[in-house]
Structure formats: C-alpha cells, structure tokens
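Sample intake sheet
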Amino acid sequence: MMRSYRGSIAILGTGMAGLGDCGGRSEQEIIAQAARQAVQASGLRMQDIDGIITSSLTSPWWVMRMAEYLGIQPSFSDSTMFGGSSFIADLKIAAMAIESGQCNHVLICYGANPRSVPSSSEINRMRAMLDPQPYEHPYKPFNPVSSYALAAARHMYEYGTTREQLAEVAVAARKWAQLNPDAFVRTPLTVDDVLNSKMISDPLTVRDCCLVTDGAGAFIVSRADRARDLHARPIYVLGTGHSHSHRQISCMPDLTITPARESGRAAFAEAGLKPEDIDVVELYDAFTINPILFLEDLGFCAKGEGGAFISQGRIEPGGDFPLNTNGGGLSFTHPGMYSIFLVIEAVTQLRREAGQRQVEKADVALVHGNGGVLSSQATAILSHSL
C-alpha cells in the first residue's frame, strides 16, 4: 500500500519579487528577495532553513547556486526538473524529505527574468539547444505555442469547442487581474479582442497565450505538527499527485487527454476528497486550452464539456466557479515557469488575504501545474484545516 502523506506538511510563509519587469536584476537577486520574504513571514531565520528545492530553465546546477547565494548549507536539496509543474510536484518531495527526518524547513523557490534579460526568443533558442526534440526539431515548429495549438484544434474538432469559449478563459483571467494590484496586465479585455488579436499558431492568437514577464516566488514547507508554533495560519497539504506521459507533443497518446487524470486521481485519493469539495481552483493557464483540458481531466466536468463548463461568466469574479483568481499566467505573471505562483495564490485565498479578489468561501483549494507540452502534470489539494 502506498504511503500517505496527507496533512504531514504545512506551508508557512510565502514571498514574491520582481514581478512584471524586474529592471535587469538577476534571477538570483529576485529569488533571494522572495525567499527572504517567505522566511520572515514563516517566523524563521534563513539559518533555520535546512532544505531547499529549486530548478531553472537554463542552469542544471541551480540548487547549488541558490544555496550558496542565500548563505545556507542544507541537509537536503533537490533540483528535479519537471518544467512548469515542478513546484507543485516538489510538495511530495518536500513531504518525503521532512517525514524521513532529513530536514525540518524546506524552501521551495523559483524565479526568472525573460522579459528584461534575455529576450524570450533567446530563451526558446536555448531550450531547443539544451533539449532538442528528435521527431520535431528538424521541422522547426514554433514551440511551445504550436504544440498547444494542436491540442486546441483537436479538442475543437472532436468536441465542438469554440474559439469564443477559448477566448472566455482569457477574458475571465483579465477580470481577476483587474482586482489584483500585482497583475502585470489589467486593461479591459473582451472576447472580440482575443479573437481579433494577432494569430500566433492557429487557432491560438496572442491573447490566447501567456505573458512573458519577470518574477520570483518562494514558500516555506515545514512539519505540520510544529507549524502552528511558527505561523498563526499554516496551510496544510492534504494530497498530491504527479504524472507524465510524453515529452514532445508528437508522442502524446491523445491530444485531448493529459496526465492530469492520473495526478488528479492520486491527489483526491490521498486527500479523501472529491471535485465538489473544492472551493477555489488554480490551474496553469499557459494557453487558453489548458484550463479546459485540466478541468475535464481533473473530474470537474466530463471529457469534451470543458468549453461549455467555463462559459457564461462562470469562472469570472462573481461566478460560481472561482478559477485562477490572481489573473493567471494569461494576465498576472509568467516568468518561464508558473506553478509556484499557483501555490502562493491558493495560500493567499485560504488565509483570506486576497483583498478585492477574495473568494467568499475558500476553505479548500486545488492547484495544478503543467510542464513541457502538456507533458508533466502535478496536482495538490490545500486547506487551512486538517
């Protein structure tokens, strides 16, 4: 029988820095700023941190660089890289390390500055060099957009999902961003604006695609039975799940079914909960097709019904299904990898600290991260109580 880590760890302080355009500061600088905020908010000192988990799009030795920069010598460290899903998958790694006695307080952190230095095109070039896809690279696709466009086109063909429904995902994200003073883009956005914006990879226009921003995030994970001694409102991790089925989109078994089915099933089983028990949902929305696919695969609606599920303002502020309440990767921020900000927003909502965007009933949150091209999926369920 698989070991359950339900409620064994809690998230304490969180921190963010360098959001939007960090003015040319280095990745290490903005991560350190976010990390110091998280440590201070946890009631700890940096010398109390004995575990660190981090990863980078461009550096294979990033965990050593960050530990050195922060002045800590951890008894546990990990830099397993699952792309954008990493920092939710890291919750299980942290739980295992803490439960095994290897450490007590784990810093999970990430940051990047693709908006200010270097350009996004340079990052894409580096990715292609570091991790070429043998069946796709020779044809020079405009990835990752073209890969997600394939999934969107297939979903539209197979289930009748419309361009307008995809656009509604972006419009809802923008309405949430307008309530978030930290969001990078807060100008009004309509369905027509999305449809009429520049086509990037059919059927996805530029407004169907996530932002390219700078930004860093961090949070501290500690043993649950000691959490309240440090923080007045610890947030408990009730369940986690992680799965991956492919690396390149040409090897994805079904363009409309993601490994979120497996990661979500595992997280719900460990938490002992069902989709109807969730009050607020934070999904990785690198492209507008993502939330539609993930809502289906996580069990919030049947396969093929995601487009209708999000329509009619349902996921907007005031709707009955609060989704991506900070504005998401589409309007809040997206520095290369995004899932760390999903965790931070869920914690903010569960602590009733979200200001104008606060969801009235927010007792249990689901966060879901996506890595690669719908490749790696990680799910976690969080709550302010056990």
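Comment: Residues 257 and 315 are 22 Å apart (CA to CA). The chain has one domain: 9-116+211-383.
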